[in-house]
UniProtKB/TrEMBL annotation:
Positions of transmembrane segments: none
Matching InterPro entries: ArnR1-like_HTH, WH-like_DNA-bd_sf, WH_DNA-bd_sf
Pfam families linked to this entry: HTH_45 (PF14947)
Protein name: ArnR1-like winged helix-turn-helix domain-containing protein
Domain ArnR1-like winged helix-turn-helix: 6-81
Amino acid sequence: MSGLNRGKFDIIADILREIESEAERTRVQTEVGIPTNRCKAYLQKLENHGLAEKEKQPTSLWKITDKGRQFLEEYKSVRKIIPRNNS
């Protein structure tokens, strides 16, 4: 999901939604609409915080963790109160 009004938490949520069904980094960056270097940095931070994990065999697929799902649920609750700015 692309957009000019996304903050860091919006981008994190978009990435986590994309990897709910496992995805390679290139698909994540394309679908989320961020450059390669930013995508790599976000995925590394998500992994460091336990929100995502990388499966190395047979290919490098990223997937969401239980902690990442918890983040998404909390994020959805906040967005019900404070929607994304679409103007």
